[in-house]
Structure formats: structure tokens, C-alpha cells
Specification:
Number of strands: 16
Distance between the termini: 36 Å
Structural class: mainly beta
CATH class of the largest domain: Mainly Beta
Radius of gyration: 22 Å
Shape: elongated
Low-confidence stretches: 83-88, 150-160
Number of domains: 2
């Protein structure tokens, strides 16, 4: 594991243009040849993209070298709705672009207690020797560990991150025989997951993160985290999934805190997070939790999250040890 390996989570929101067209947006990190792109929107002035979150690999060295994010917005003409790929979905024309200097944002992005950075930006283009604004959008930035890029992308999109749930049956996780301790975590369900203002209808896309930290007031390093599957557009998700959280390589004794974070793919801020000291557990004794997550507004109901955890130690034969 290399501590310098990170990813920049880029989420596009609140896009606004003057005319109704089919739009798509690209994003690129300076020094990287690869561009990421959204899907093509319906002909509207305020497009909402289903593939609006991207994870761009970035090293610690690149973060101190004045990186830039380059955004570009395109419109498409002669679009064929039944086309199989982007190249057959009409001719793309550059509408405008935007460059975000990330240097001033690095301290906020690298703050372990921070929740990321939100910026309102504009697409512009040159016209008659001056810059003209042709669109507006909001970008949410967050520095995450490489673990976010180790999960398959959502089929048909550029999104990486939690794997999409395709049912309520999931294989048991693979086991690592060299663990010193581990927590078997059964993520069951939630009721009344909070709505969001990003997606049509406000339906959330919930998933759960599990991580470890040494101290109660310190959130987990990104590299220790594991994730559940993603349940899309559902206020009452049934994950019915089991995860195995193995001790980090440098942590042999049973110490520190297990962190559980409830997230919505469309929101940079967590829905709820809590930590449990590992010395609270007794080996092979299940702990069942009903966690209440208060709504952020007076009209929002309380979200209830259900899970079970079991601390496991390696099984050793007394006879073989002799």
C-alpha cells in the first residue's frame, strides 16, 4: 500500500443553460490524458446526468504541483435516441469550457476532518474578443482513498465507486486466513432514507462504508474502508449483504474504533456516521443494532438502519499447538 495513492472525487450538480439542447460534460485533470464524461442529457436547460460522479487518480506529488481541473460542455445535434454508443448519438459541438485552479483548494481537500469543497463555476467562450458565460454548474470535490476506484463501475456509465446491487442475494465475501481479528458485518436494511435535492424525485442511492481508526475523534483513513453495494433510487434499501472487515496490516492487537458511515451517492456529506470501540465486542458474540438517524429538517422522518456485527478471532487447536 502506498499512502500517496488518492483519488479526486468530482461530482457535477445544478447545471443551467439558456437553451434546450442535448448536453454532456467532460472533465480532465491536468497532466492526465484520459477524459471522463457524463451521459448525454435530454433536450433541457437544466440537465441532470445519471453519470455525474468521477474518480480521478491523483498523487501527493501532483497535489503540490498546482493541478487544474478542465471542464468542457458540449451540445449534440442530429441525435439518434436508439443509437448504441456516443459516436452515433449526433455531432458534438463545444459550447464552452472552464478551468478550476486547485492550488487554493488543496488545504481544504486534505483536511482529514473536512467534508470536501463545493464551488459554483461557469462555462464560457470567446465572442468578439471577450468572454461570454454560456452556462453555470456546481462542482463538489473530495479527496478519497484509492479504495473508491477498486470497485467496478456502474454498467453503462463512467461512474466508479460502489457496485450496483442487482438483487437481494449476494455471495459471501472471500476470507483472508492470515487475519488477527476481523468483524463480520451484516448490512441488512434501512427505512426512510433521507431524500436529496439532486436527483429527479429526490430519491437517494444509499450505500454503507465501514472503516477503522485508532481514536474516537479521528475518522478512518480511506485505505482502511470497505463498501457495501449501491441500492439505486430507493428510500427503503434492503442490502442483505455481508462484509468482512479484516484488521489493517499494522494493527495486530484489538484496539481502536470501528466506523460505520451511511452515504447517498448523490451527496458529498454523509447521512450518518458512528463509531464503536472494538473492546466492546466479545469474540463470536453477535451484536444487533437499530440505529436512528434524525432528519435534518423538521418535516423529515427518522431514518432507521439495521445491521449486525460479530468479532472473530482465528480458531486455534489446542492439540495442534502442543
Amino acid at each position: 500500500m502506498e499512502a500517496s495513492k488518492k483519488s479526486l472525487q468530482v461530482t457535477l450538480e445544478s447545471c443551467e443553460f439558456a437553451k434546450e439542447f442535448n448536453y454532456f460534460i467532460t472533465v480532465q485533470l491536468s497532466g492526465h490524458a484520459e477524459k471522463r464524461r457524463t451521459d448525454v442529457s435530454a433536450p433541457v436547460t437544466n440537465p441532470i446526468f445519471s453519470a455525474n460522479t468521477f474518480y480521478l487518480p491523483i498523487t501527493a506529488e501532483e497535489m503540490v504541483d498546482d493541478p487544474r481541473l478542465q471542464f468542457a460542455c458540449f451540445t449534440t445535434t442530429d441525435r439518434k435516441e436508439n443509437a448504441a454508443d456516443y459516436e452515433q448519438k449526433g455531432q458534438a459541438r463545444l459550447l464552452g469550457d472552464c478551468i478550476l485552479e486547485m492550488g487554493p483548494l488543496i488545504p481544504s481537500l486534505t483536511d482529514i476532518h473536512g467534508i470536501g469543497v463545493r464551488r459554483a463555476l461557469e462555462f464560457s467562450r470567446s465572442k468578439d474578443g471577450s468572454e461570454v458565460t454560456v452556462g453555470r454548474f456546481t462542482v463538489l470535490l473530495k479527496l478519497v482513498g484509492e479504495y473508491m476506484t477498486q470497485y467496478p463501475g456502474l454498467e453503462g456509465t463512467n461512474l466508479t465507486g460502489p457496485k450496483r446491487a442487482v438483487g437481494e442475494m449476494h455471495l459471501l465475501p472471500p476470507e483472508d486466513v492470515n487475519f488477527k481479528w476481523r468483524v463480520r458485518f451484516d448490512i441488512r436494511a434501512a427505512i426512510d432514507y433521507p431524500l436529496n435535492r439532486v436527483t429527479t424525485g429526490g430519491l437517494p442511492s444509499p450505500y454503507v462504508e465501514v472503516g477503522w481508526s485508532m481514536y474516537e475523534q479521528t475518522e478512518p483513513d480511506e485505505y482502511t474502508k470497505i463498501m457495501s453495494v449501491l441500492v439505486e433510487n430507493n428510500r427503503h434499501p434492503h442490502w442483505n449483504q455481508q462484509l468482512l472487515f479484516n484488521n489493517p496490516a499494522e494493527v495486530i492487537d484489538l484496539s481502536g474504533y470501528l466506523w460505520v458511515t451511511l452515504r447517498d451517492k448523490n451527496s458529498i456529506e454523509p447521512i450518518q456516521k458512528f463509531s464503536i470501540p472494538l473492546d466492546y465486542f466479545r469474540p463470536f458474540t453477535p451484536v444487533h443494532l437499530e440505529v436512528h438517524c434524525p432528519g435534518k429538517g423538521p418535516e423529515e422522518s427518522v431514518c432507521k438502519f439495521y445491521c449486525s456485527m460479530v468479532l472473530e478471532r482465528p480458531l486455534v487447536s489446542a492439540i495442534d499447538s502442543l
